[in-house]
Amino acid sequence: MRHVITVLGVIGISAALMASPVRALEPDQLPPSYTLGLNAGTAQMGVPDGAGGVIGNVATGSTLGVDTIPTFDSYFYDPGFNTNGIRQYTWQFRMVGRVPFKGGEDDNDRRDDDGPVTRFRAPVVPVTVDLRNGDGSPRFVNGQRLISSPAAYVAPTLASPIFQPTGYTSSFIPTQFTDAILRAEFYGVASHHWHTLLYPSVKPGRTMVFVAGTYRFALNADGTCCAFILVDRSTFNNALFPIGQQAVTAGDITTQDISTFLFPNTFLYSNGDPKQCCILGFHTYVAEPGDQSNGWMERRYVFNYSSWVTLGLFASGWADVAVLSHELTETFNDPFGGNLVPWWLAPNGNCQNNLETGDVIEGLPNAIKTIHLGGTAYHVQNEALLQWFAGQTPSTAINGAYSYPDPVLTTPSVSRNPGCE
Question: Could you tell me the residue ranges of all domains in the chain?
Protein backbone atom coordinates (compact mmCIF):
# COMPACT_ATOMS: atom_id res chain seq x y z
CA MET A 1 0.00 0.00 0.00
CA ARG A 2 1.31 3.36 -0.95
CA HIS A 3 0.38 6.91 0.09
CA VAL A 4 -3.29 5.97 -0.06
CA ILE A 5 -3.66 2.49 1.31
CA THR A 6 -6.66 0.41 0.40
CA VAL A 7 -8.01 -2.97 1.31
CA LEU A 8 -10.46 -4.99 -0.73
CA GLY A 9 -12.74 -7.38 1.06
CA VAL A 10 -14.53 -10.40 -0.31
CA ILE A 11 -18.06 -9.46 -1.12
CA GLY A 12 -21.18 -11.54 -0.87
CA ILE A 13 -24.46 -10.68 0.77
CA SER A 14 -26.42 -13.30 2.68
CA ALA A 15 -29.97 -14.36 1.94
CA ALA A 16 -31.08 -12.77 5.20
CA LEU A 17 -30.72 -9.37 3.59
CA MET A 18 -32.72 -10.13 0.46
CA ALA A 19 -36.12 -9.19 1.79
CA SER A 20 -36.48 -5.70 0.27
CA PRO A 21 -40.00 -4.59 -0.62
CA VAL A 22 -41.04 -5.70 -4.10
CA ARG A 23 -40.91 -2.45 -6.05
CA ALA A 24 -39.33 -1.36 -9.29
CA LEU A 25 -35.71 -0.48 -8.68
CA GLU A 26 -34.30 2.95 -9.37
CA PRO A 27 -31.75 3.02 -12.23
CA ASP A 28 -28.86 3.16 -9.72
CA GLN A 29 -30.46 0.97 -7.07
CA LEU A 30 -29.02 -2.49 -6.54
CA PRO A 31 -30.63 -5.61 -5.14
CA PRO A 32 -29.06 -6.71 -1.85
CA SER A 33 -27.70 -9.76 -3.69
CA TYR A 34 -25.72 -7.65 -6.16
CA THR A 35 -22.28 -8.26 -4.73
CA LEU A 36 -22.75 -12.00 -4.28
CA GLY A 37 -19.96 -13.85 -6.02
CA LEU A 38 -17.67 -10.94 -6.78
CA ASN A 39 -14.02 -11.84 -6.34
CA ALA A 40 -11.87 -10.74 -3.44
CA GLY A 41 -8.89 -8.59 -4.15
CA THR A 42 -6.75 -5.71 -3.00
CA ALA A 43 -6.39 -2.18 -4.19
CA GLN A 44 -2.63 -2.67 -4.42
CA MET A 45 -0.76 -1.37 -6.06
CA GLY A 46 10.41 -15.94 -6.98
CA VAL A 47 13.25 -17.52 -5.86
CA PRO A 48 13.77 -19.26 -2.47
CA ASP A 49 16.77 -17.93 -0.58
CA GLY A 50 17.52 -20.69 1.89
CA ALA A 51 17.57 -20.14 5.63
CA GLY A 52 15.38 -17.07 5.81
CA GLY A 53 15.78 -13.60 7.23
CA VAL A 54 17.31 -12.19 10.39
CA ILE A 55 15.53 -9.47 12.34
CA GLY A 56 17.67 -6.74 13.88
CA ASN A 57 17.84 -6.22 17.63
CA VAL A 58 18.34 -2.47 17.79
CA ALA A 59 16.18 0.48 16.82
CA THR A 60 16.28 4.23 16.59
CA GLY A 61 13.72 6.67 17.90
CA SER A 62 11.07 8.82 16.32
CA THR A 63 11.05 10.33 12.83
CA LEU A 64 13.37 13.34 12.76
CA GLY A 65 12.22 16.63 11.31
CA VAL A 66 8.57 15.61 11.05
CA ASP A 67 5.70 16.72 13.27
CA THR A 68 3.79 13.44 13.65
CA ILE A 69 3.12 10.48 15.92
CA PRO A 70 5.99 8.76 17.79
CA THR A 71 7.61 5.97 15.79
CA PHE A 72 10.69 3.76 15.91
CA ASP A 73 12.90 2.43 13.11
CA SER A 74 14.55 -0.98 12.85
CA TYR A 75 15.52 -3.48 10.14
CA PHE A 76 15.82 -7.07 9.01
CA TYR A 77 18.07 -8.97 6.60
CA ASP A 78 16.63 -11.14 3.84
CA PRO A 79 17.77 -11.47 0.21
CA GLY A 80 15.15 -10.13 -2.16
CA PHE A 81 14.37 -7.62 -4.88
CA ASN A 82 13.22 -4.05 -4.44
CA THR A 83 10.54 -2.33 -6.50
CA ASN A 84 13.05 -1.60 -9.28
CA GLY A 85 14.15 -5.22 -9.47
CA ILE A 86 17.51 -4.56 -7.80
CA ARG A 87 18.85 -7.15 -5.38
CA GLN A 88 18.59 -5.96 -1.78
CA TYR A 89 19.56 -7.50 1.57
CA THR A 90 18.72 -4.96 4.25
CA TRP A 91 15.15 -3.77 4.76
CA GLN A 92 14.39 -0.90 7.09
CA PHE A 93 10.95 -0.46 8.62
CA ARG A 94 9.19 2.12 10.73
CA MET A 95 6.49 1.25 13.28
CA VAL A 96 4.27 3.13 15.68
CA GLY A 97 5.28 3.69 19.31
CA ARG A 98 8.50 3.39 21.28
CA VAL A 99 11.52 1.15 20.77
CA PRO A 100 10.61 -2.38 21.99
CA PHE A 101 14.06 -3.67 22.87
CA LYS A 102 14.58 -3.90 26.63
CA GLY A 103 18.23 -2.95 26.70
CA GLY A 104 18.79 -5.15 29.74
CA GLU A 105 16.42 -3.54 32.20
CA ASP A 106 14.79 -5.68 34.86
CA ASP A 107 11.08 -6.06 34.11
CA ASN A 108 10.32 -6.18 37.83
CA ASP A 109 11.69 -2.66 38.21
CA ARG A 110 9.63 -1.10 35.47
CA ARG A 111 6.41 0.77 36.14
CA ASP A 112 3.57 0.94 33.62
CA ASP A 113 4.24 4.65 33.11
CA ASP A 114 8.03 4.43 33.19
CA GLY A 115 8.64 4.75 29.49
CA PRO A 116 7.68 1.56 27.63
CA VAL A 117 4.03 2.60 27.27
CA THR A 118 3.06 4.85 24.37
CA ARG A 119 -0.39 6.40 24.50
CA PHE A 120 -2.09 7.80 21.43
CA ARG A 121 -5.19 9.89 21.21
CA ALA A 122 -7.50 8.11 18.77
CA PRO A 123 -10.27 10.43 17.56
CA VAL A 124 -13.26 8.72 15.97
CA VAL A 125 -15.12 10.92 13.47
CA PRO A 126 -18.53 9.46 12.46
CA VAL A 127 -19.32 10.23 8.82
CA THR A 128 -22.89 10.36 7.51
CA VAL A 129 -23.37 9.58 3.80
CA ASP A 130 -25.90 11.84 2.08
CA LEU A 131 -27.02 10.63 -1.36
CA ARG A 132 -28.39 13.38 -3.61
CA ASN A 133 -30.02 13.82 -6.98
CA GLY A 134 -27.89 14.89 -9.91
CA ASP A 135 -28.73 18.55 -9.27
CA GLY A 136 -27.63 18.27 -5.64
CA SER A 137 -31.11 18.30 -4.13
CA PRO A 138 -32.06 15.81 -1.37
CA ARG A 139 -33.12 12.46 -2.79
CA PHE A 140 -36.05 10.33 -1.75
CA VAL A 141 -36.94 6.79 -2.82
CA ASN A 142 -40.41 5.50 -1.95
CA GLY A 143 -40.80 8.47 0.37
CA GLN A 144 -37.61 7.67 2.29
CA ARG A 145 -34.65 10.03 2.38
CA LEU A 146 -31.43 8.52 1.04
CA ILE A 147 -29.12 9.27 3.93
CA SER A 148 -27.17 6.83 6.10
CA SER A 149 -25.77 7.59 9.54
CA PRO A 150 -23.12 5.66 11.49
CA ALA A 151 -24.52 6.85 14.84
CA ALA A 152 -25.67 3.37 15.87
CA TYR A 153 -22.17 1.97 15.31
CA VAL A 154 -20.12 4.43 17.34
CA ALA A 155 -20.79 2.99 20.81
CA PRO A 156 -20.16 -0.65 19.80
CA THR A 157 -16.95 0.40 18.06
CA LEU A 158 -15.66 2.04 21.23
CA ALA A 159 -16.76 -1.00 23.27
CA SER A 160 -14.96 -3.42 20.93
CA PRO A 161 -11.59 -5.19 21.38
CA ILE A 162 -10.05 -2.45 19.24
CA PHE A 163 -10.23 -0.05 22.18
CA GLN A 164 -11.12 -2.17 25.21
CA PRO A 165 -8.73 -4.47 27.15
CA THR A 166 -9.09 -8.10 26.19
CA GLY A 167 -7.05 -11.16 27.09
CA TYR A 168 -4.31 -12.23 24.65
CA THR A 169 -1.41 -14.62 25.09
CA SER A 170 1.04 -11.92 24.00
CA SER A 171 0.31 -9.74 27.04
CA PHE A 172 0.50 -10.40 30.76
CA ILE A 173 -2.46 -8.07 31.24
CA PRO A 174 -5.57 -7.57 29.09
CA THR A 175 -4.84 -5.14 26.29
CA GLN A 176 -6.10 -3.81 22.97
CA PHE A 177 -6.04 -5.79 19.73
CA THR A 178 -3.42 -3.70 17.93
CA ASP A 179 -1.12 -3.71 20.95
CA ALA A 180 -1.47 -7.49 21.20
CA ILE A 181 -0.32 -7.86 17.57
CA LEU A 182 2.70 -5.60 18.08
CA ARG A 183 3.63 -7.41 21.30
CA ALA A 184 3.38 -10.78 19.51
CA GLU A 185 5.98 -9.59 16.99
CA PHE A 186 8.43 -8.43 19.68
CA TYR A 187 7.43 -10.90 22.38
CA GLY A 188 10.91 -12.23 23.00
CA VAL A 189 12.64 -8.87 23.28
CA ALA A 190 10.13 -6.38 24.71
CA SER A 191 9.53 -5.65 28.37
CA HIS A 192 6.36 -7.03 29.91
CA HIS A 193 5.39 -3.40 30.38
CA TRP A 194 5.90 -2.36 26.75
CA HIS A 195 2.54 -1.33 25.29
CA THR A 196 1.20 0.86 22.51
CA LEU A 197 -2.31 2.00 23.39
CA LEU A 198 -5.15 3.96 21.81
CA TYR A 199 -7.34 6.37 23.77
CA PRO A 200 -10.49 6.97 21.70
CA SER A 201 -12.78 9.97 21.80
CA VAL A 202 -15.80 10.70 19.64
CA LYS A 203 -15.56 13.91 17.64
CA PRO A 204 -18.34 15.90 15.93
CA GLY A 205 -19.78 14.04 12.98
CA ARG A 206 -19.14 15.03 9.39
CA THR A 207 -21.23 14.51 6.27
CA MET A 208 -20.14 13.43 2.80
CA VAL A 209 -22.50 14.32 -0.04
CA PHE A 210 -22.58 12.34 -3.29
CA VAL A 211 -24.62 13.18 -6.36
CA ALA A 212 -26.36 10.64 -8.57
CA GLY A 213 -23.98 8.96 -10.98
CA THR A 214 -21.20 8.56 -8.43
CA TYR A 215 -22.86 5.96 -6.22
CA ARG A 216 -25.10 2.90 -6.09
CA PHE A 217 -27.24 1.78 -3.16
CA ALA A 218 -29.35 -1.04 -1.78
CA LEU A 219 -32.22 -0.42 0.62
CA ASN A 220 -32.90 -2.16 3.90
CA ALA A 221 -35.71 -4.69 4.09
CA ASP A 222 -38.05 -1.99 5.42
CA GLY A 223 -37.30 0.31 2.51
CA THR A 224 -35.06 2.70 4.41
CA CYS A 225 -31.53 3.69 3.43
CA CYS A 226 -29.32 1.73 3.25
CA ALA A 227 -28.28 -1.91 3.41
CA PHE A 228 -25.08 -0.76 1.74
CA ILE A 229 -23.75 2.10 -0.37
CA LEU A 230 -21.18 1.76 -3.13
CA VAL A 231 -19.23 4.88 -4.05
CA ASP A 232 -16.81 5.57 -6.87
CA ARG A 233 -13.34 5.44 -5.35
CA SER A 234 -11.99 8.63 -6.91
CA THR A 235 -15.09 10.57 -5.96
CA PHE A 236 -14.84 9.25 -2.41
CA ASN A 237 -11.19 10.26 -2.05
CA ASN A 238 -11.93 13.72 -3.37
CA ALA A 239 -14.67 14.10 -0.74
CA LEU A 240 -12.80 12.50 2.18
CA PHE A 241 -9.79 14.77 2.28
CA PRO A 242 -11.82 18.01 2.56
CA ILE A 243 -13.72 16.70 5.59
CA GLY A 244 -10.39 15.65 7.03
CA GLN A 245 -9.20 19.20 6.60
CA GLN A 246 -12.35 20.42 8.35
CA ALA A 247 -11.56 18.16 11.29
CA VAL A 248 -7.97 19.46 11.40
CA THR A 249 -9.11 23.09 11.28
CA ALA A 250 -11.59 22.43 14.10
CA GLY A 251 -8.84 20.84 16.21
CA ASP A 252 -10.61 17.48 16.23
CA ILE A 253 -7.54 15.67 14.89
CA THR A 254 -3.87 16.60 15.22
CA THR A 255 -0.47 15.36 14.12
CA GLN A 256 -0.15 13.44 17.38
CA ASP A 257 -3.32 11.39 16.82
CA ILE A 258 -4.25 8.16 15.07
CA SER A 259 -7.65 9.11 13.70
CA THR A 260 -10.54 7.07 12.32
CA PHE A 261 -13.28 8.18 9.95
CA LEU A 262 -16.08 5.68 10.65
CA PHE A 263 -18.63 4.98 7.89
CA PRO A 264 -21.89 2.97 7.78
CA ASN A 265 -21.69 0.05 5.30
CA THR A 266 -20.01 2.27 2.71
CA PHE A 267 -17.75 0.52 0.21
CA LEU A 268 -15.80 1.72 -2.81
CA TYR A 269 -15.57 0.57 -6.41
CA SER A 270 -12.80 1.33 -8.89
CA ASN A 271 -12.58 2.67 -12.45
CA GLY A 272 -16.19 3.82 -12.43
CA ASP A 273 -17.36 0.19 -12.48
CA PRO A 274 -19.51 -1.04 -9.55
CA LYS A 275 -18.50 -4.59 -10.41
CA GLN A 276 -14.92 -3.70 -9.43
CA CYS A 277 -15.88 -3.71 -5.79
CA CYS A 278 -15.38 -3.55 -2.84
CA ILE A 279 -12.82 -1.52 -0.91
CA LEU A 280 -13.85 -1.57 2.75
CA GLY A 281 -11.18 0.71 4.19
CA PHE A 282 -7.72 2.16 3.88
CA HIS A 283 -5.09 3.81 6.04
CA THR A 284 -2.90 6.71 4.98
CA TYR A 285 -1.61 10.10 6.04
CA VAL A 286 -1.80 13.65 4.76
CA ALA A 287 1.31 15.85 4.73
CA GLU A 288 1.20 19.61 5.11
CA PRO A 289 4.02 22.16 5.35
CA GLY A 290 4.99 23.39 8.78
CA ASP A 291 5.33 26.95 9.96
CA GLN A 292 7.15 28.90 12.63
CA SER A 293 4.91 27.52 15.38
CA ASN A 294 6.28 23.97 14.93
CA GLY A 295 9.78 24.82 13.77
CA TRP A 296 8.86 24.52 10.08
CA MET A 297 8.58 20.74 10.35
CA GLU A 298 6.38 18.88 7.90
CA ARG A 299 3.05 17.93 9.51
CA ARG A 300 1.73 14.41 9.00
CA TYR A 301 -1.82 13.49 9.98
CA VAL A 302 -2.26 9.72 10.28
CA PHE A 303 -5.78 8.38 9.75
CA ASN A 304 -7.91 5.63 8.30
CA TYR A 305 -11.25 5.25 6.58
CA SER A 306 -13.01 2.18 7.93
CA SER A 307 -16.52 1.00 7.31
CA TRP A 308 -18.59 -0.70 9.95
CA VAL A 309 -19.94 -3.84 8.30
CA THR A 310 -23.29 -5.28 9.31
CA LEU A 311 -23.00 -8.94 10.28
CA GLY A 312 -24.07 -11.22 7.44
CA LEU A 313 -23.48 -8.71 4.70
CA PHE A 314 -20.33 -10.43 3.42
CA ALA A 315 -19.94 -14.15 2.86
CA SER A 316 -16.26 -13.91 3.73
CA GLY A 317 -17.01 -13.00 7.36
CA TRP A 318 -16.23 -9.27 7.34
CA ALA A 319 -18.35 -7.82 10.12
CA ASP A 320 -18.53 -4.93 12.61
CA VAL A 321 -14.92 -3.84 13.48
CA ALA A 322 -13.01 -6.34 11.35
CA VAL A 323 -12.09 -3.64 8.83
CA LEU A 324 -10.94 -1.28 11.59
CA SER A 325 -8.82 -4.05 13.13
CA HIS A 326 -7.14 -4.55 9.76
CA GLU A 327 -6.47 -0.87 9.11
CA LEU A 328 -5.24 0.05 12.59
CA THR A 329 -2.91 -2.95 12.76
CA GLU A 330 -1.46 -1.96 9.41
CA THR A 331 -1.10 1.60 10.70
CA PHE A 332 0.87 0.30 13.70
CA ASN A 333 3.17 -1.73 11.42
CA ASP A 334 3.45 0.75 8.55
CA PRO A 335 2.17 4.20 9.57
CA PHE A 336 3.35 6.03 6.44
CA GLY A 337 2.99 3.26 3.87
CA GLY A 338 6.72 3.22 3.20
CA ASN A 339 7.89 -0.09 4.69
CA LEU A 340 9.14 -2.05 1.70
CA VAL A 341 9.92 -5.76 2.07
CA PRO A 342 10.94 -8.55 -0.33
CA TRP A 343 8.21 -9.38 -2.82
CA TRP A 344 5.76 -11.88 -1.38
CA LEU A 345 2.95 -14.05 -2.68
CA ALA A 346 0.30 -14.67 -0.03
CA PRO A 347 -1.98 -17.72 0.23
CA ASN A 348 -4.86 -15.49 -0.92
CA GLY A 349 -3.01 -14.68 -4.16
CA ASN A 350 -1.97 -11.15 -3.23
CA CYS A 351 1.44 -10.20 -4.61
CA GLN A 352 3.00 -7.18 -2.93
CA ASN A 353 6.27 -5.86 -1.55
CA ASN A 354 5.17 -3.91 1.50
CA LEU A 355 4.64 -4.58 5.19
CA GLU A 356 0.85 -4.64 5.12
CA THR A 357 -0.12 -7.21 7.72
CA GLY A 358 -3.78 -7.58 6.85
CA ASP A 359 -3.39 -7.97 3.09
CA VAL A 360 -1.61 -11.30 3.50
CA ILE A 361 -4.60 -12.94 5.19
CA GLU A 362 -7.73 -11.06 4.07
CA GLY A 363 -10.28 -13.21 2.30
CA LEU A 364 -8.93 -16.56 3.54
CA PRO A 365 -11.49 -18.93 5.07
CA ASN A 366 -9.98 -18.49 8.55
CA ALA A 367 -9.11 -14.79 8.22
CA ILE A 368 -11.73 -13.53 10.68
CA LYS A 369 -11.59 -14.26 14.40
CA THR A 370 -14.56 -13.86 16.76
CA ILE A 371 -13.89 -12.29 20.17
CA HIS A 372 -16.60 -12.15 22.82
CA LEU A 373 -16.48 -9.03 24.94
CA GLY A 374 -19.15 -7.63 27.25
CA GLY A 375 -21.71 -10.12 25.98
CA THR A 376 -21.16 -9.11 22.35
CA ALA A 377 -19.47 -11.10 19.59
CA TYR A 378 -16.97 -8.93 17.73
CA HIS A 379 -14.99 -9.79 14.65
CA VAL A 380 -11.33 -8.95 14.04
CA GLN A 381 -8.92 -10.05 11.35
CA ASN A 382 -5.94 -12.27 11.99
CA GLU A 383 -2.73 -10.49 10.98
CA ALA A 384 0.58 -11.55 9.46
CA LEU A 385 3.58 -10.81 11.68
CA LEU A 386 6.90 -9.14 10.87
CA GLN A 387 8.63 -12.53 10.95
CA TRP A 388 6.53 -13.71 8.00
CA PHE A 389 7.62 -10.81 5.80
CA ALA A 390 11.25 -11.27 6.86
CA GLY A 391 11.19 -14.95 5.88
CA GLN A 392 12.56 -15.80 9.31
CA THR A 393 13.09 -19.49 10.16
CA PRO A 394 12.30 -20.21 12.91
CA SER A 395 10.13 -17.25 13.83
CA THR A 396 11.11 -15.22 16.88
CA ALA A 397 7.51 -14.10 17.38
CA ILE A 398 5.40 -15.50 20.19
CA ASN A 399 5.32 -19.32 20.07
CA GLY A 400 7.18 -19.24 16.75
CA ALA A 401 4.11 -17.75 15.06
CA TYR A 402 3.82 -16.11 11.65
CA SER A 403 0.32 -14.75 12.26
CA TYR A 404 -1.69 -13.71 15.28
CA PRO A 405 -3.94 -14.22 17.18
CA ASP A 406 -4.54 -17.47 15.24
CA PRO A 407 -1.89 -19.56 13.43
CA VAL A 408 -3.37 -18.94 9.98
CA LEU A 409 0.16 -18.82 8.55
CA THR A 410 2.44 -21.70 9.48
CA THR A 411 5.44 -21.01 7.23
CA PRO A 412 7.25 -17.76 6.36
CA SER A 413 7.15 -15.84 3.11
CA VAL A 414 9.62 -16.81 0.41
CA SER A 415 11.25 -13.92 -1.50
CA ARG A 416 9.84 -13.64 -5.01
CA ASN A 417 10.92 -11.99 -8.20
CA PRO A 418 9.36 -8.55 -8.80
CA GLY A 419 5.67 -8.94 -9.51
CA CYS A 420 5.91 -12.55 -8.26
CA GLU A 421 6.75 -13.71 -11.75
Answer: 7-420
